[in-house]
């Protein structure tokens, strides 16, 4: 338990995936309202729901990739749901067949904990405020009106104390609320036929470790996608005219409440086209400029996880490039301090920066793991590193060195755990060795890193063991439908026994088979006065683009003006 | 001399800077038409212009920074011009006082060569086609109609053969033209007063080394900003509705022809505002989203240097961030080959990729050096590295490590020659140690690198010696008004005796004085079929942003909708 910090309200957390469809038209469509209720009824009739049972998540159990790829519109598809329940502090998982309302599997999940629930976080308020040590600590700070104090318990992803193995453990903190307002793609069509580049791309994990070892801060290392309770959802509503143009296409989403009822939320994603006023290509030849204006199709959602807001973009351009971008904004997480500006800030805290009088923005990192299930013209792909290798040139007065490209196909998972080093450049490509383009190169898609960061925490740190994916920029795994979350499916209080670093110990073969790429988008954040009281949006991005996938520039014949299309 | 390659016409090259103003209203305004003619008349009356004398450049001699900073509107300013002439293969430099039409300085420039002229490049056509070896080589290839063969001579920036020290040396090549169409920001106002962040920012150099050691390709390592002739200019006209919105504000530019006459070109730059449909900031609190839509002011120009087109953007956002971006498009430089697609491309050339039948896109790099003359709230600045350093945490079950921020002020130039290493992260800041913000931090601007590359050529390579700036991502020098070009002022045939790598050998002190930052924006380019016959635009960028420069987020009170401003 800590003393006071700047008042922060945790209002909103997450489920793994938003569900956008209202009717079943595709095997990967999210559960419809009636389907949620079928799941509920099945569990109820089977006697699995006590009055105190809470729902952590109800998600479509995705059909096998083979089923999805074989499906054609109009065909019936098997529909099943994966359910996680919390009952008497124990976690249970279930699988329900929706058509028959039958519970196919049910059992206690041992050695793992369900995500934290809102009722656990906020339900701790009364309990914490009854603790004599808390009452005394508040009294010393001149606070006796406990109605203006709000306490909550936060989960911690990793196992820091032994009790976490078997009990539901949260780490508490209290805020004073008095006088304050707030206290914080898939397939590409070209050339006349549909071709696939990606089967699925998703945010797999979000890991935000803070860098203050003080009591009440040492536990702050959030696995924001996976650790928190279902109910309100990871994604939050978008605002027309602010987050997306008012004329965008809007998608509603459905998720589960703790009580098992589906909950519909409007505008959880938007789709819009924008014209960035840049040419898709241009060339000056003689005195004439030839070219075509570009356009961009943006699929956007926003996650608000307590204080932080993240805009999550999937930006498609007609040249076959998909740019994946994260815009970080919202309110930084802060710590109260008695330090004043009169103090020499330059010899100030090593763990943060003053951002206002009495307010320290604490150093932290953000790491997103993007799961990229490449299926370039089919499911059997290889991962190729095309290294640029310096080479000496002898007996030439004009040159003493060049670099040459030396492609190497990764045989096993450990060959494809990659870091970015500017002195050892390489290109990262997913290729289909069985499909050749007109120039006889294997068709491929390239992953192009953007500005990014890797974790520099030590490997034995309990926080880093959970967020181990952040140690490297890129990973490739052999496809396994159970491996969806880079830090494991049940990170809450876990012992780091799941996730990328664990799976890749098997060092499976990854050549000419179904493989998945995992990109780490990261940034270190030392805060500044300009980040207070709300941060200007900071964007980070990476891209994937066709490489010998098309036979020529695919945007040569775009409309000559934006009005033409 | 080489044999045939794919026909490529070099139509257009460069002078260091475009001149946008038509009348003298500011000490840094470019020369006006009448001023060009005063320069011409002064040189003519002094007897320096023989009938064969060619003008390489006529540029404003910038007044001292002290003069500019002391100037107020309406005051008269001294106007001088720097002139480079080529006469009998010798380079002469002159300085002319414009008001008095007096030649203040005139002399031969020894040990350096003026930039190459268009007349030298294209004037070589007849000479080359008279060479018996060329005629024979063309005959062997079945070409006897020399009207359909176009030959030219290209300069090479570095000294590869001894004759370059004293003679004008070009490296020739011929193209067949038969049957083909083409053969290739400153001050920030806020808080009620004007404050400076940058005195001047500019593209200082562009270095494009190719990676083919073959004859006719081993000399291809272009210093595209500095090596080529004046006349047409580095910047080329922009096309309304393609390069910039039709309603943009357009800037004309004036530069010099070889004959000394000023030449006006329309639409050499544009300025427009765009709404990227992103929030400048947003936060979901409760069920309400608060925020403000962002906008962006874009100053854009385009350089076409033979085959390549570069869009050069300076993007200003209201939060005080300046994003500097380069969009590369146009036509890749190619080499003919007898290799066919039937050949196994995967064991194909290490020096390039087939992009079409018979056409190899040759591996190459692009390096831009941006000169950033930071004057953060005044001319005396320091450069601070804020390192993120891992630190062990002992006796805490919750954590074993954090990182802390450890700021270090660079004392000398060699302390600030920087590479990006993800395992040793740091922030780069220009700060004014004499000006403190409300929180007592020195006001600063941060340089935020984007995705970039460094040269991996060997340091003794003659090409790399000229483009030595590309070995590192960032440099800081003590301000010297003569040091404007990262690879030297006269790179043509030079012996690498000028530029960043040479200046910083002096290891001058850079603390609390006038200093300049130099950012290397680079990318390696292995070509792909999608880059042919013209490349989709590929953007690279970096940004500078305020850091404890303002007292809070400066965009809190932007208009609530784009229509409001």
Note down, in words, how this protein is organized.
With 565 residues, the first copy, chain A, is mostly beta strands. Helix content of chain A is 9%, strand content 39%. The first copy, chain A, is built from 6 helices and 30 strands. In chain A, β21 (352-356) and β22 form a beta hairpin. The model of chain A is unreliable at 1-23 and 182-189 (pLDDT under 50). At the A-B interface, β15, β16, β17, β19 and β21 of A face β15, β16, β17, β19 and β21 of B.
What is the fold's blueprint, element by element?
The structure is a homodimer of 565-residue chains.
Chain A lengths: L3 E2 L27 H13 L8 E7 L4 H6 L9 E8 L2 E8 L4 E7 L9 H12 L2 H9 L8 E6 L16 E6 L10 E4 L2 E4 L1 E12 L11 E3 L11 E2 L12 E8 L5 E13 L4 E7 L2 E6 L2 E10 L2 E9 L5 E9 L3 E3 L15 E5 L2 E4 L1 E11 L7 E11 L8 E9 L16 E11 L5 E7 L13 H5 L7 E5 L21 H4 L11 E11 L9 E13 L18
Parallel strand pairs in A: 1-7
Antiparallel strand pairs in A: 2-3, 3-4, 4-5, 6-7, 8-9, 10-11, 10-23, 12-17, 13-14, 14-17, 15-16, 17-18, 18-19, 19-30, 20-22, 21-22, 23-29, 24-25, 24-26, 26-27, 27-30, 28-29
Sum up the structure in keywords.
11-stranded antiparallel beta sheet, 5-stranded antiparallel beta sheet, homodimer, globular, mainly beta, 565 residues
- Percent of residues in beta strands of chain A: 35-45%
Category from helices, strands and their pairing of chain A: mainly beta
Instruction: Tell me which oligomeric state these chains represent.
Output: homodimer
Rg of chain A, Cα atoms, Å: 25 Å
Helix content of chain A: under 10%
Overall 3D form of chain A: globular
Number of strands of chain A: 30
Low-confidence region ranges of chain A: 1-23, 182-189
Distance between the termini of chain A: 60 Å
Helical region count of chain A?
A: 6
The major β-sheet of chain A equals:
11 strands, antiparallel
Largest interface: A-B, 142 and 140 residues
Mean pLDDT of chain A: 86
């Amino acid at each position: 338990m800590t003393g006071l910090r700047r008042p922060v309200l945790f209002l909103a957390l997450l489920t793994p995936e938003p569900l956008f469809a209202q009717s079943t038209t595709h095997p990967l469509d999210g559960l419809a309202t009636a389907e949620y209720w079928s799941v509920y009824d099945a569990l109820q009739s089977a006697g699995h729901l006590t009055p105190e049972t809470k729902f952590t998540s109800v998600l479509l159990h995705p059909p096998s990739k083979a089923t999805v790829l074989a499906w054609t519109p109009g065909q019936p598809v098997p529909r099943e749901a994966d359910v996680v329940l919390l009952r008497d502090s124990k976690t249970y998982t279930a699988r329900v067949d929706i058509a028959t309302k039958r519970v196919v599997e049910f059992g206690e999940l041992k050695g793992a904990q369900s995500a934290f629930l809102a009722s656990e976080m906020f339900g701790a308020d009364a309990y914490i405020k009854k603790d004599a040590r808390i009452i005394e600590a508040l009294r010393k700070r001149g606070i006796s009106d406990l109605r203006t104090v709000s306490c909550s318990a936060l989960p911690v992803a990793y196992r820091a104390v032994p009790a976490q193995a078997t009990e539901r453990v949260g780490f508490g903190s209290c805020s004073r609320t008095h006088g304050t307002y707030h206290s914080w793609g898939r397939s590409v069509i070209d050339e006349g036929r549909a071709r696939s580049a990606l089967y699925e791309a998703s945010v797999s994990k979000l890991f935000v470790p803070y860098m203050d070892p003080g009591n009440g801060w040492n536990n702050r290392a959030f696995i924001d996608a996976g650790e928190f309770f279902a109910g309100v959802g990871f994604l939050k509503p978008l605002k027309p005219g602010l987050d997306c143009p008012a004329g965008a296409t809007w998608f509603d989403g459905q998720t589960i409440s703790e009580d098992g009822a589906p909950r519909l939320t409007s505008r959880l994603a938007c789709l819009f086209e924008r014209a960035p006023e840049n040419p898709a290509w241009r060339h000056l030849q003689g005195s004439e400029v030839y070219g075509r204006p570009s356009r961009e199709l943006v699929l956007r959602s926003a996650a608000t996880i307590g204080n932080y807001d993240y805009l999550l973009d999937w930006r498609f351009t007609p040249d076959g490039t998909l740019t994946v971008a994260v815009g970080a904004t919202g309110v930084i997480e802060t710590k109260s301090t008695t330090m004043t500006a009169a103090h020499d800030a330059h010899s100030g805290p090593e763990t943060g920066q003053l951002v206002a009088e009495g307010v320290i923005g604490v150093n932290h990192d953000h790491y997103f793991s993007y799961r990229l299930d490449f299926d370039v013209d089919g499911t059997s792909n290889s991962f190729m590193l095309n290294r640029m290798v310096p080479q000496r040139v002898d007996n030439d007065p004009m040159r003493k060195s060049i670099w040459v490209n030396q492609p190497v196909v990764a045989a096993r998972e450990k060959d494809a755990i990659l870091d970015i080093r500017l002195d050892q450049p390489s290109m990262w490509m997913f290729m289909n060795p069985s499909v050749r383009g007109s120039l006889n190169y294997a068709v491929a898609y390239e992953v192009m890193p953007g500005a990014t960061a890797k974790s520099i925490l030590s490997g034995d740190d309990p926080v880093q063991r959970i967020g181990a994916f952040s140690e490297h920029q890129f990973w490739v795994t052999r496809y396994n439908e159970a491996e969806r979350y880079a830090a494991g499916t049940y990170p809450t209080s876990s012992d780091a026994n799941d996730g990328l670093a664990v799976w890749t110990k098997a060092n499976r073969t990854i050549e000419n088979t179904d493989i998945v790429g995992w990109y780490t988008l990261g940034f270190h954040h030392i805060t500044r006065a300009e980040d207070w009281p709300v941060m200007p949006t900071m964007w980070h991005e990476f891209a994937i683009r066709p490489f010998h996938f098309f036979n020529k520039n695919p945007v040569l014949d775009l409309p000559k003006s934006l009005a033409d299309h």
